[in-house]
Amino acid sequence: MDNKIPVQIKPTIKTKYVYEKLRICNNCHRYTILREDNCTFCGKPGLLPLREKAAATVRRTMRNERLAAILITLISIFFGRSFQEMAIGLAGGVILTGCLWFVQHRLLPRAVSREIARMFLHDRQRIADGLIANLDRAVETGKEDKARSYEMLREIAALVHDDTIRSLQIILLQSFVLRKDMELELEPLLQSRFDPDLARYIGELAKIKRELIKDRTFRYILKYEHEIASLERGEDILAGVAGAAVRLKRYVLSYSDFISRYARLLPKERFLRLYRVIATNPNEPWTSLADEVYRIYNEKYQWDADFQQITPRSISL
Amino acid sequence: MITYVCLAILFLFVIAKSIIYWRRNKNSIAPEELDRRLVLQINRDSDNHGQ
Ligand SMILES: [Zn+2]
């Protein structure tokens, strides 16, 4: 893994809802989730967000209904036998068409949501085909531009929750030089199976972005602890994750057994943090972790100046 | 006479449309629900493809 490439990864375009990422081509009516200017299928510009497309459809239907109302009004005027009847026809038609317009106008936003739901069902296969084409394109792009390929997979993965896509993302991420300032993610990449590349990625994040390691990741690591330990430098990964867990007292309490297994491998700065959590909270149920921490402290850090500033309220040895 | 028939038809048309819109409005779909439906649909479909 020495031939890692330096890359620039663009940040994700955040939308409030996932479906807002999906767009439809106004020309060939195919769907895409990729942030591209032109349609993948027909190559033409004119990709519309679903809400815009649905709103256009609803507005067209409503306009047709109003045209029908106007047409009926005109017929009623045309067949009026006297000026009075024609006036009644005109007035009645205007009032009723106005009522229709008022109701339509008030209910437009909800009608648009219904239209979007209808599009999901009606275009089910088309949406699936669009996403498969997106995936093919992302894989194809990976031959020339790995960073762009990763960005594309990340866009697809926002909607398609699939271990194969996550694996592809991890493989790409493992070919990059990861930096702290990159927009990286972890929880969306966790899989239901053991993936050595994912374990190595978690190990790297434990060094550069440990704030991404949260409960779901700890549970993943605990589930596959044996498999990870048998990897080359697997213990370093596990120690890194234990080091990430000591940043919060809540994690130390929840994963105390796991941390106690790797406390000895923690670098001094992480061990100091763990020691501080334990020493300043003597009444918490640390189980065997406290014993292990004080044992390591006595063996390695008893005379260390950094540890002298922390005064344990009660040492339970 | 036809004028009044036309107005009656228009009246019924507007009433019928209003009732349809009003009933749809009552069971409207929140954006969260749209998201849930789409994610479920896509991932069920991709599961079937994977099998
Ligand atoms: Zn197109």
From TrEMBL, chain A:
What top-level branch of life does the organism fall under?
Bacteria
Q: Where are the transmembrane segments?
A: 67-84, 90-108
Question: Is Transmembrane tagged as a keyword?
Answer: yes
What keywords appear on the UniProt entry? Answer: Membrane, Transmembrane, Transmembrane helix
Descriptive protein name: Zinc ribbon domain-containing protein
Q: Which organism is it from?
A: Paenibacillus vini
At the highest ranks, the source species' classification is: Bacteria, Bacillati, Bacillota, Bacilli, Bacillales
From TrEMBL, chain B:
- The name under which this protein is listed is Uncharacterized protein
Species assigned in the record: Paenibacillus vini
